[in-house]
Model the fold of this input.
Amino acid sequence: MQHRTVSDVMTRRVVTARPGTPFKEIAELLDRNGITAVPVVDDRNHPLGVVSEADLLRRQARLPDPQGHTGPLHGQPDSLTGAETAESLMTSPAVCARPGWSVVEAARTMDRERIKRLPVVDETERLTGIVSRSDLLRLFLRHDTAIREEISRDVLDRTLNLAPGTVQVAVHEGVVTLSGRVERQDLLPVIERLCASIDGVVSVHQTIARLRDDIGAPQRPSTHEGLGSPARHG
Done:
């Protein structure tokens, strides 16, 4: 089985800013390119931080309300009020990903760090792309037919070497349903886990029975949530 990596889904042409890029120019970069953040890089293209729409708005929120309807904000550094360049506006250090990371690893890093995007750097720490949450979620747009074929071919046939027709696979909106009969009970969690790891799988339901079980005794249904390599410069 071949799972998509960050290199497969990342945006390679990255809009960037320099430490000295002014506030207004950053806002224009975001608007002109239809993006919500830019990595800030040095002369060697090493990411130093990221400036997002939230950073720009946070700076503006520190300014006095001209109509006096709201009081001053607390809990933000006073230096942000006078921030005029990317260096003073950016969130740093930049949390970065590697091209060879699995999509699951990228998603978990975003969730843990509570960020929406990851600059992607090579072995020399130079910027090679950027991956966003929407890039990761794009995997769930895979067609049901492609998911079913990958499960049948790569999981059931090539990996587990099950005879054709032993397990039947149905996929609807990314939800996999497995049925059939297998010889060994210990195969059931393995089948579920491998199917759940296929890119684009939302969850796995199975009612697979053992060959030695009484046909009249229904097996307890099982559900396994798919890791599905979730998922996404935005």
